Every structure is written in C-alpha cells, then in structure tokens.
Amino acid sequence: MNVVVVGAGLAAANAVSELREQGHTGDIVVVGEEQYLPYERPPLSKGLLLGSAEPDAVFAHDRAWYDEHEVDVRVGTVVTGIDLDRGRVQLGGSDLPYDRLLLATGATPRHLATADASGAPVLHLRTLDDALLLKDRLQGRIAIIGAGWIGLEVASAARQAGAEVTVLESAPLPLQRVLGEELATVFADLHREHGVDLRLGVTVRGVEHAGGKAVVHVEGSADVIADLLLVAVGVTPNDGLASQAGLAVDNGVRVNALLRASDPHVFAAGDVANHDHPVLGTRIRVEHWDTAIQQGKHAARVMLGADEAYTRLPYFFTDQYDLGMEYVGHVDARGYDELVVRGDLGERNASVLWLREGRVLAGMHLNDWDAIDSLRRVVGGEADDAVRDPSVPLADLG
Ligand SMILES: Cc1cc2nc3c(=O)[nH]c(=O)nc-3n(C[C@H](O)[C@H](O)[C@H](O)COP(=O)(O)OP(=O)(O)OC[C@H]3O[C@@H](n4cnc5c(N)ncnc54)[C@H](O)[C@@H]3O)c2cc1C
C-alpha cells in the first residue's frame, strides 16, 4: 500500500511516524508547499518571539529521521489537484499514485482587504518565516487586530520585548466565545496589567499607510498609528483542493468518526478536518496542536485497517506572561449554565469546570500543571455534588 500525504505540517509528521511505528513498509510520500520539513507552530507566537526557543528546535523530525524511515518528503512542492478515480495527486507537471491519501493541508490566516490594500507594514502569523519576520520587528508600537489566542500571545511577547501594544477586538472581551465572560475577564485583566492598550467592542473601519506606518481607523475609539500591524482574525481551512476534487467539504474536509473522507481511500487530519465527533455528538473542526498530532496518528492507524472512531476530546494550551493554562473539552454555541471555580481566579491559580444540564463540558487550569489529568477524568462525565463542591480537591474527583 502506498500512502501520499498532502501538506507537511504536524498532522503529516505524526501520521508518517505512526505508519512506520505500526510496521507499514510501503512507500510514503509527503508533499509540502513550505520550504521546511514539518514543524511545530506553537513556539512561533511564544518562545521563538521571546528568544527562549531557537528556530532549529521547532522541527518534528530532522532530515536524517525521514531518510532513515524511508519517508520521501518533498518540500517546496504544491499539490495542484487530486484525481479520485485514478488515485493520483497532481504536482504541477507530474503526478503521484496513491492507495491511501491523507489531506493535512492545515489552514490559512484570514486577511482584511483594507489592510492588504493599504501598503502599510502588515503581517499575519502562520509560518516560521512569518515568525522570524515578526521577531525582528517587535519594537516601537505594534497594533494587533484580533484578541484571539495568537493575537494575545503576540501581545504578550511584544510587551516582554518592550514594544507598545494596542489590541483591537470587536467582541466585548477577548476569547469570550471560547471561555465565557468570567475567564475572558481574567485574560483582559492580565493584558491590561502588563500595559496593553486593549480596546474591546471596537470596529476597524480601515487601514492606511502614512510615512512607513500603519494608521488604523477605529470606530468608537481614536486611530492607532503603528510601526507594524498584525492581523490575527482567525484562519480558514485549506479545503479548496478537496472541494475541487469532489470530496464533501463544509468548513473543512468532512470526515466521519474514523477520519475517513467521502471517498473511502482519502482521510483528513488536523486543522483542515471537519470531524463527526462521536463523544461530543457534533461535527467539529479543531485548530489545535494536540488534535493535529493525535488525528494524524489515528488516520494512519485507520489506513492500516483499524476500525476505531477518533474520540479524544479537544485540548489546547497557552502561555502568556507568567500565565500558563491548559483546557480540555468543548463548550458549543449553546454555552454553559454553571461554572465551578476551585482556587482563585484573581491570583490566576485555579481550575475551572464548565457545566450544562448536569454534565461537565470542559475544564481548564491556570498555572496548576498537575491538574490536567484530573480535568481529563472529569470532563465528559456527570456533574455530581463533589464535582460542584469547590472544597473537594480536583484530584479527588472522577
Ligand atoms: C503561531 C501559532 C501558534 C499556535 N499555538 C498553539 C498553541 O499554543 N496551542 C495549540 O494547541 N495550538 C496552537 N496552534 C495551532 C497548531 O499549531 C495547529 O493546530 C497545527 O499546526 C495544525 O497542524 P496541521 O498539520 O493540521 O496544519 P499545518 O501545521 O498548518 O500544516 C499544513 C501544511 O500544509 C501545507 N499545504 C497546504 N496546502 C497544500 C498543498 N496544496 N500542497 C502542498 N502543501 C500544502 C501548508 O503550507 C502547511 O505547511 C498555533 C498555531 C499558530 C499558527
């Protein structure tokens, strides 16, 4: 059986290592548009900008590993089409046959037309090259549009590098859709305490270029004049290739519980996969590091014949200033009806559970790195009296 992986990111790196670990001896080709071997993106908005992580440390494996494991990684190569009937992927002038195909094409940052058209110094952050460029320019005044994870992590790194930072966000609080009001307030306070000019509930009306600077016109607040503007307003999945090929696509490549796409020889994993999650009972596309790793491995096992659903709950982490947190679970658009806090949110040393109709939907800790195993045990289960009682230690639950 010969396997082709489109996209050389984290899902790809983990899929190929799992294929070899499980004893697959057939050909494996990974085709990636970037000039780099697969790498980890989390350091790009944290350690790499802070100078605590070196660019060389971000790679999933070095070239010798791929050679040793007979994995043919073709960097700087774009897959331009997929022929499902003939089982081939097109690479511009040539094509490659596959018996099993993994789509691991990730996602692309959303752009703002006004910023792109302005000619002002504007960056987005997705690739190692983006991060290296950004690291060199973390001085003076930085404006960031979007108070999501990446916007806030860059704000933290930029403040620590001594830059003045303004963050513009249209929602009433940063991260409110994911965390709810109580925890979103913790992040708003954190950034303000560190000197970020956090402007919430504002709308960017336009961006202009004047004297080498970006001038951001903001409705409901003064203009922001910045040496650099980072647009961090989310990503869209790279699912164009799949839809052109005739695969089912809807906010990502639609895959079943096993991660199989609408063609039985094709799979998707990571940021591009819209997965029918059997535990959550809903479709979900997760843009997190852990999901890319675990779905990559899972798709590999299913390609080799495993008949198992992917059931792992979404998990992510962030580091901002002296705050580290991990989150497991998922609160969907219906929200939550109860929040149980153990510890002190003000001190940013706490664990939190989100509940709805007596079930624990998600859990998170702030600066309590021993908590994640206990959170994993509790999330997804019934919320009994002990779960609801903050005086019962988290470690005693589940
Ligand atoms: C700056 C940053 C910080 C992050 N921090 C965190 C964090 O702290 N915690 C967390 O949980 N998650 C974090 N994430 C998210 C996490 O990194 C992603 O979820 C993960 O990288 C997704 O992996 P992937 O393999 O699905 O896609 P990617 O890593 O995006 O890889 C996909 C690759 O496919 C290539 N490709 C696309 N189309 C084609 C084509 N047609 N032909 C060839 N190649 C193609 C792309 O160029 C790309 O290199 C962060 C992401 C970023 C950008």
From TrEMBL:
Start and end residues of each FAD/NAD(P)-binding domain: 1-296
UniProt KW keywords: FAD, Flavoprotein, Oxidoreductase
Pfam families per the UniProt record, alphabetical: Pyr_redox_2, Reductase_C
Keyword Flavoprotein: yes
CC cofactor: FAD
Annotated ranges, domain Reductase C-terminal: 315-397
Entries under InterPro entries matching the protein: FAD-oxidoreductase/Apoptosis (IPR050446), FAD/NAD-bd_sf (IPR036188), FAD/NAD-binding_dom (IPR023753), FAD/NAD-linked_Rdtase_dimer_sf (IPR016156), Reductase_C (IPR028202)
Signal peptide feature range: none
Protein origin, superkingdom: Bacteria
Name the UniProt record assigns to this protein: NAD(P)/FAD-dependent oxidoreductase
UniProt organism field: Nocardioides ginsengisoli
Taxonomic lineage: Bacteria, Bacillati, Actinomycetota, Actinomycetes, Propionibacteriales
